[in-house]
Amino acid sequence: AGFAALTPKTASAQSDEKICTTYCNACMGCPLEAVVRDGNVVLTRAKEIEGAPIDQKRMCARGASIPTLIVQEKRIQYPMKRAEGTERGAGQWERISWDEAIDTICTKIKEYQAEFGSGSVCSFTYGTTEPRNMYNLNRLENVAQFSHQNRTTDFALTQGTMYTAGGFYYQGGVDMDLVSQMSTFVVWGHNPIVSWPNAWHYIADAIENNDCKLIVVDPNKNTIGQKADLFVSLQPGTDAALALGLAKIIEEEGKTDDAFMQQKSCAPFLVKESDGRFLRKSDLEEGVAADADDFAVWDEATNAMGYASTAQNPVLRKKGIEVAGQRCNTAYSLLIDRISEYPIEMVSEATTVPEETIRTFADLLCRPGMADIFQGYGIDHYGHGFNTIAAVSVLRIMRGMVPEPRMSYPLNSSGFDETETEHPAIVQSLGTFMFNDLLDTGKYTFPGVTAHMGEQVMELPDVTVEQPLKMLISFGANIVNSAPDRNKTIEAYKKFDFLVTANIEWCDTADISDIVLPAATIQEVGGPIGMNGCLVWADKAVEPKFEAKSDYDMANLIGRGLGLDEWFQEEFDEGMKHVVNTAMSAAMGIDADKLKEAGVMYVGAVPMPAYMTMTGKLQFYQENPGPIENYGQPMDPASIALPHWEPPMEAWPVTAGGFDANPLAEKYPLIVTAGTRRFRVHSYYGQNPLLREMEINEPCVRINPVDAEARGIEDGSYVRLFNDRGHAVAKATFSAGIRPGCLDIDRGWQRSQYLSGCNNDLTSKQIVDWTCPTYAYHDCLVEIEPWDGVVAESQE
Amino acid sequence: MRYGMVIDLKRCSGCKTCSVVCKVANNIPNDIIWNRVLTEGGNAPDTAGGTWDNPEMQHWPVACQHCENPACTKVCPVGATWKDEQTGIVRQDYDKCIGCRMCLAACPYTGVRSFNWEEPAYYADFALGDADAAKHEKHTVEKCIFCTQRVARGEQPACVADCIGRARHFGDLDDPNSEVSKLLASREYTQLHAEFGTKPSVYYLV
Amino acid sequence: MNDAKGSAASHRGLTVGIIACAVVAVIGVALWMVQLSGGMIQTGMRNLDSWGFYITLFMFFVGLSAGGLIISSIPNAFGMKGFGDISRVAIWTSICCTCVAIGFVVVDLGGPLRLWELFVYSNLSSPLMWDIIVLSTYLILSIVYLWAYRREDAGKMSHTAIRVISIIALVVAVGVHTVTAWIFSLSAAHEFWHTALMGPWFVASALDCGTALVLIVVIALQKAGRLTIERSSMVNLAKMLAVFTCVDLYFFACDLLTSGFPGGEGANVVAMLVTGPLAPFFWTQIACMVLACVILFVPRLRTKGGVVLASALVIAGVFCKRCEILVGGFQIPNIEFADVANHMTITNWESGMSLFGYQGLVYWPTPLEFGVALGVVALGGFLLLLGLKYLPLHLTEKTA
Lengths: 796, 206, 400
Ligand SMILES: Nc1nc2c(c(=O)[nH]1)N[C@H]1C(S)=C(S)[C@@H](COP(=O)(O)OP(=O)(O)OC[C@H]3O[C@@H](n4cnc5c(=O)[nH]c(N)nc54)[C@H](O)[C@@H]3O)O[C@H]1N2
Ligand SMILES: Nc1nc2c(c(=O)[nH]1)N[C@H]1C(S)=C(S)[C@@H](COP(=O)(O)OP(=O)(O)OC[C@H]3O[C@@H](n4cnc5c(=O)[nH]c(N)nc54)[C@H](O)[C@@H]3O)O[C@H]1N2
Ligand code: SF4
Ligand code: SF4
Ligand code: SF4
Ligand code: SF4
Ligand code: SF4
Ligand SMILES: [Mo]
Description:
The structure holds 3 protein chains of 3 kinds. By secondary structure, chain A is an alpha/beta fold. Chain A is built from 27 helices and 35 strands. Chain A has an 8-stranded mixed sheet, covered by helices on one side. In chain A, strand 26 and strand 27 (534-538) form a beta hairpin. In chain A, helix 5 (155-165) runs parallel beside helix 16. The model of chain A is unreliable at 1-11 and 792-796 (pLDDT under 50). Chain B has one domain: Alpha-Beta Plaits, CATH 3.30.70. Chain C has a single domain (4-390), classed as Formate dehydrogenase/DMSO reductase fold, CATH 1.20.1630. Chain C has helices at 4-38, 53-77, 84-108, 117-120, 127-153, 159-185, 198-223, 231-260, 264-274, 279-297, 304-331, 354-357, 367-390, 396-399. Chains in contact: A-B, A-C, B-C. The interface between A and B is large, with 71 and 62 residues. The structure holds ligand MGD (2 copies), iron/sulfur cluster (5 copies) and molybdenum atom. One iron/sulfur cluster (SF4) binds next to helix 1 of chain A. Chain C: Pfam families: NrfD. Chain C: The chain crosses the membrane at residues 12-33, 53-77, 89-107, 127-149, 161-189, 201-221, 241-261, 281-299, 306-327, 370-391.
């Protein structure tokens, strides 16, 4: 062949090759093409996305490694059961038939449900959040009346952004078109270069074409930090103080976007002093229909009370307004009171960020042009994560950063066809942190809290949830590896009478199970997904390897085995149609057949009439928030009405900002976080040998040379991280980018890949904020020492 | 025509997607990486050098530089590595290579050439990548070949097509209207070890 | 004058030596087969230190052979007297060394079965090709040279012809060594190698270790009663050895100063040798060579034993230098940014971090390499002894 001029197109099929549409299910659902030869996926590549206004093509190293992921040694090949007479976790397995596996599982379910109630069988369906799996698993969970295990991870960011801005921006990925237009972009507690790899090129576009200033707020100068114009390192867990301090500067310098706040936020709403709630039309007038309700504001145009929807010039900064016998303040004036508690001197002292840097940061935030803040899980994974997210949202609202309300195109993974309105629903949601108690005593007690309702102080009593637990079925996820305080997790899991794990690869959770089921990969199943403005219908590219089955089929088999045949009639393709064929799709002229035909359809963001907050406006003020995940816990809504800063529950080794150091820090002075790693998504992809070549092939912990040298640790040597909960042995790698006093350990290596311990042996299950119970993975103290190579006795 | 690559260091995020797609597309044996993404900084990938006051880290994707004046081809006694004058691509004949490793010693870009020290091994029991990717052989030397098989079909090299940072560009350096030429005309760039006089066809935008 | 008994004993000794060498050589070949079938992964060489013991020994033996021939040719070429007896042994020694050197290239090749390509696809810009050409020329010439001596003995060749051949041989021998040096020095990629001095320096090394080898062989043969040589010739040789060694040291000093003085990369080379991972080799070399010079220059120490010791020290010193050159060339990478290392890229890759592979010596041979190398050397020994036994090397027969 001659050397023709190059075209940007890369798609071409050789003879005997088939090109299938597929996607990667690990994080962003990247639309891919799989080249199939002789029944094997031999290559994956990013699919061109036609019709997208911006370059949406994407695939990272993980997606590129799918061909070997499918055939990797660690794939679960057949249904397996723990060998008769061996201990859980002993590693002795026997191959069984699918019939035997499903039979055993269904018999057990029936027995436990008959004796201990339907909720005694619990299921976990968080494997991968795609409809391909979730649809039928949700269905099974509901119809069979299992209790539902919730992993209580990432809730702070979800809840924080939902409540303040009505949803994720950037993370869901529909807003990348905006990113490339930014003049100022802040990445706060996030490392998108690694965790949302394709987000980076939009940021790079902004930098290249818009002279965008990139600000990175992170204790450590990580991979995104290296690209920053302003890198702000702060004491971990002090972000809320920094955000509120910045807010104070912006307010004082008169740089707030008042018009934006007047129109789009709760800033002008009048808040009653009596109960802290917004004053509504329905408080003042009789017979206001719910959908016609409105919020009272003080209109400067008329110098009288008005309503949010009609007022010309609602006042933002006004206190002590008397309306209909109620003393009210504008929500914004309450925020001003709150941020006044964060003068720059105090913020600088608490965060260790120099005052000058804080001022530069504030100036950059107020640069002309578009700006926004990309918040991440680095600030989610703390005891007070929700508060921090909400505090950062304050800046977004004050500066008018939050884009027009929009959302990603939703697919229906509820488990039921939109027309199926009459169906059973899950009885109970259980947090993983409740398991130890539920398994020991059959009940879990939430600690009571003191609630402040306006002037009133109320003691909210303990709440006890009762639920004997006997059996757990985990579809996907690898909770033994990913949940904090692994030793406690294992202790709990071992107390289940019966554990079933369905996964595509052998993992820590499979290790301690009784039955392990081989799940099929996306390339072996196909199905729809909606991500980043794209709808994809993946082809079934290859036959499932070995005896793997789709999670969908497993749910069907279990459902039918339980005698629930009427609910489990539809085969995969049929079921998947309900995922795409919703009223919304119909309105947009999209249906399953069209999607299947097209492979990928670009749908972009779906505009919304209002922000999806409780009031439809951006809300830095929460009048009566409930948790997104309700386990029946007591809550103190007033404590999160306005964001504030409190130090982390554990990772507070300093005395600053008016808070004493955690005495535990005398023993364990270092803060360990586990940022995302390039070549694994948590544990997923972590056993793919092709990717193992790309990194140091064992768990590493990055450490500042100063901290290492003080402990006689050499670069590249083994070290032991430890605290009262456990330990982890990892290879110390020096990085001057790690903040002294901090450590950054790998996340997601299986226990079997460690020499001893595991990173989540160190973390804690403790939850401090009952409004938003979320795991505080980064909120963790340890000490570190050279490792002498002796396996400690705490290691089983 | 002289094919060349332009890599924008400001856009490179060090993600190694290029390394992996290169391995898959060319069915490269285990533990051989043609296109490495190196970290300038600490001693391990993704670590920073310097001190905490000013930590420094930069990623450098490095594969064969397809030198205009290659050190490797001159020393190869049998012409198993040779420069295709028509395209400027420095190519590699596995079935000709006698495994003397003259080229390994001669190439100034430490590590871009790999010798198959043993029978090539693979993670899959079927060939990955392009059907027409050359077969690898024990005791022969290999390296980035600018995806000759793809370029011959008018396609972009795998690493360029799938670069997540949109940092890699490929084209004819002799054509002033090509994207690569335009980038070089408009941006500051550097080359790896220009002092060796190898005249690399890989340029790094800084 | 040696009695028949002594001669018979030495003959028996030779036979035993020949058999021993043959056995070791066969074992070596078997190990080579192991290397070829199991892969060169079994050696200590890796991508970033892609030559090792074999090429070190290749350099070393090329040096020995070229040196031997130069030594035997100089007297002829310049009409010096009293070396005639040495010449034949020296030529044979150098033929054997050349074979050993070629053997090392062959065992280092990944595809020895493709050797024929060298002749079919010869790329004349490759210094390896040049080396192959001069080595073959050299080998052929040596054989011709030896044959010429034989003819001369039979009175069928004039001494002038021998002189002409010896001059050609001299040029080719210098050439062999220079070209071998070019294999390294023409590679700009390795700071340590890339020096114009490498050629002359290799010649100097060839001369000193070639002379040393000839001295050892001659003294040994004399001891065994297979050769007599005038004391004055030996003293001359010894003095030459001392001078050559000094020149070698002088070149090294010049090179180190030129490298180190401006600072930069060159200074790293000096540091690597003087205080770094190669320091043991460097200082052993210096110590050996200086000590040898002392022995050779001080007449009182210049006894037979002393000369043998000095010669051995020089050879050891030059061997150390070969190691320094080879490993040293790889020791400093041009691109030293971090990446993951694996068992293909770096010999000591255990840390997984490539820069750590560079702590300590990048390369150290494996037992297999020692075994194969021993085999190749034994092959040379086999040839040498066989020659001594059966070839008319003009030893005792003539002087008897
Ligand atoms: N490669 C890869 N990508 C992934 C994942 C993966 O495992 N691997 N997981 C996916 C999932 S489920 C999630 S939730 C996301 C998570 O991805 P990210 O949102 O990027 O979160 P992390 O990597 O946990 O933390 C980001 C940064 O927060 C910093 N940080 C730690 N403590 C603090 C603090 O107190 N303040 C501030 N400002 N920063 C802090 C850390 O140093 C780290 O650099 O990634 C997703 N993408
Ligand atoms: N120390 C520490 N721990 C953390 C975090 C941290 O920051 N620090 N971050 C936490 C966060 S943000 C999260 S989201 C969690 C993630 O925790 P997990 O979700 O438990 O982690 P993964 O390893 O991603 O598990 C996904 C599993 O799904 C399997 N899988 C993939 N596809 C399928 C399929 O189609 N079917 C089935 N049945 N299985 C499939 C994969 O093989 C893999 O085992 O980890 C948390 N753990
Ligand atoms: S891991 Fe995430 S970013 Fe990478 S290909 Fe898969 S979905 Fe895309
Ligand atoms: S794929 Fe692109 S961004 Fe990623 S490492 Fe390679 S060159 Fe850099
Ligand atoms: S980079 Fe090295 S291997 Fe590639 S052409 Fe240049 S000299 Fe040859
Ligand atoms: S190893 Fe192969 S390609 Fe390299 S110089 Fe020798 S024959 Fe040529
Ligand atoms: S051009 Fe092709 S062979 Fe070269 S690095 Fe890129 S993908 Fe690999
Ligand atoms: Mo997450």
